Amino acid sequence: xVAQLVDEVGGIAxxxxxxxxxxxxxDVDRVRDPLATWKxxxxxxxxxxxxxxxxxxxxxNHPRHGFKSPEEHLAKLGGTTTREARAMLATSQQLTDLPRxxxxxxxxxxxxxxxxxxxxxxxxxxxxxxHLLALAATTNVHELREECQxxxx
Length: 153
Description:
This protein is an all-alpha fold. The chain has helices spanning 2-7, 9-25, 34-59, 70-78, 82-94, 99-106, 112-124, 129-138, 141-152.
């Protein structure tokens, strides 16, 4: 059932329509618990970013309709820079060999920034994947990036 929902664009499109309606009707001055609401939207954002990251390597193989590279195509689709699209594509490809990181991403435990740092480092040194995931859960992005850079040296 879930695989069919994910495989059919209609299922995801229905989620998009519902979320668009929620945002349209959101009255931020009347929200009872703005922190909880913000955290919920952050999780939704992480899950959407996770799906985009996981799909990036497949989208990169689609016809690019005049774009010079897959990264340029992804950048245009996502309204981002080619540099950010390149990082997303690299992460998407690295995740095929990093199942624990991919699982944490799917659970919404990692932001796009966190997963890019962890995947880049763990791709070079897979035995630190668990350590970096634990660090991502307990520290800030700056410290995580520093540790990931040390790992890659």
